[in-house]
Specification:
This protein has 145 residues and is α+β, with helices and mostly antiparallel strands. The chain is built from 3 helices and 7 strands; from the N terminus they run E-H-E-E-E-H-E-H-E-E. The protein has a domain at 3-103: Aminopeptidase, CATH 3.40.630.30. It has helices at residues 9-23, 86-100, 115-120; strands at residues 3-4, 45-50, 56-64, 69-77, 105-111, 124-132, 136-144. It has a 7-stranded mixed beta sheet, sandwiched between helices. It is globular and about 35 Å long. Bound molecules: coenzyme A.
């Protein structure tokens, strides 16, 4: 499976560059806005999907939520690779890691336009969530592991 945890410095750079390009730059957010304080926490698991040519084509992360709960954030697939099963592989990688950690539930705040993707992977909408940058409505979703 071409999903791995980034280790090399070049992979980490590509990881954050893709997160920025897909999730922040289109809304004119400054470089650095793609980073979260707990990215470096030992309890955060990062996933990177590598294309056959070696380039990084997708990223995502898992971090702790409430008791027995994990949260998926920052799922981003490079535009040329969207719709080719990359997001599914990333999410299944993080779900396997969450089960390995003994977690019983995953939650996430999905962009409304991506909610159908998560529903396809077994997540259910709980309630409307925040609106990012004043224009991107989110929904809270969850899945039993
Ligand atoms: C949303 C995203 C992560 C999905 O990853 P992806 O690699 O494009 O999705 P996959 O090819 O793995 O799709 C898996 C299934 O979900 C479906 N799907 C994918 N995106 C969808 C969407 N936006 N709405 C509804 N269904 C979707 C696919 O058709 C596929 O269905 P299938 O099992 O019947 O073939 C990716 O498109 C992306 O990065 N989009 C831009 C950024 C974004 O919105 N990130 C999520 C922030 S919460």
């Amino acid at each position: 499976m071409p999903v791995e945890t980034p280790l090399a410095a070049a992979d980490w750079a590509a990881y954050y560059q893709l997160r920025y390009a897909v999730l922040r730059q289109p809304w004119q957010q400054p470089p650095g806005s793609e980073r979260a304080p707990d990215d470096d926490a030992p309890t955060t698991t990062h996933a990177l999907w590598r294309a056959p040519d070696g380039r990084v084509g997708g990223v995502a992360r898992l971090s702790p939520g409430g008791p027995g709960q994990g949260q998926v954030r920052f799922m981003a697939v490079a535009p040329p690779w969207q719709g080719h099963g990359v997001g599914r592989q990333l999410l299944e990688f993080l779900e396997a890691e969450a089960r390995r950690q003994g977690l019983r539930e995953l939650v996430l705040h999905a962009r409304a336009g991506a909610a159908g993707f998560y529903q396809r992977l077994g997540y259910a909408v709980v309630e409307p969530s925040h609106t990012l940058f004043g224009v991107i409505p989110h929904v809270l979703m969850r899945k039993d592991l």
